[in-house]
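Backbone shape codes
____________________
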Amino acid sequence: MKTVLLLTTLLLLLPSGTLTRSDEPVPIEVLVKNSLLNNNPVTYRTEVVPGWILLGAMRKLMDSDVNFKFTYSDDPHYGPFLESVNGLAGNPEDHTYWELLVKVPDGSIIRPNVGIGCYIPNENEQIIFNFTKW
């Protein structure tokens, strides 16, 4: 009982908001790149609330920038699957697809082990959608 009372007292002494995450938006970039044609990449900027999944950030970006479009399908086993970006779709016959990469603040590029439905962007990351072949 004394432990519960002590913990309750300590929680009351903490500054307001200490135990909650910030809902202040953080900036991210989305880079759309076509490795097969070596076109100039196009960069889009948006902000996301910490904890948002990438798919939500993409929807927000599409709603706020008429130049950014995407489509996806829902796979019953793997979740959302990115099909097209800005009108360019992957094609199984051509072995083309949209690869998800992330440039983290230290400059290194990672390949997340999750897709657009589970990846949670962090502040100042650059999300890279790279059209390529497998």
